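Researcher: Predict the fold of Protein GrpE.
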Amino acid sequence: MPPRENGHEEPVIRDNRKIDPETGQVRDAPAAEQEAPAEAPEAQNGELAAQLAERTADLQRLQAEYTNYRRRVERDRVVVREQAVAGALTELLPVLDDIGRAREHGELTGGFAKVAEALEAALTKLGLSPFGQKGDPFDPTVHEALMHSYSTEVTEPTAIEVLQLGYRMGDRVLRPARVAVAEPEDAPPASDDDDN
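Model: Structure tokens for Protein GrpE follow.
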């Protein structure tokens, strides 16, 4: 480029139009284009197919990641909800114990009885259910033995008295039932000599 008076080069303008605007005739291809061999259409198609396959695989991978993410978020949301409900229900268990004691002593009457029934119904809707009955076989996963004795009336370790009801929410034990346990009398008593 020839330098201008102020030291800067003049811009170069190239006319790459395929039709000459003055004559309307098709121009010959520039020399650089004539020398470069054109790629075969098969090679271009193969390249495009490879790029398409790569992009499709990327898209499928992203879709799978997003689906897994949505499932994890939904599962976590359910777990967090269950934990929140279980925490609230656990805090209400002493209130239910007081209601149970008042009912046993005949002190739950009138309007308070209706309130207690409404509370118990609402907690049942949330999945709370009491467990622990006199005569249940002792199960250490859901019972807490507070007293132990031997009896000829039982054939296996049995809850002979329920000292405090247990509560569960679905399969989750919120509080074990506190019970007095009796074992069959013919069971050999454990001695301190066995520990040595």
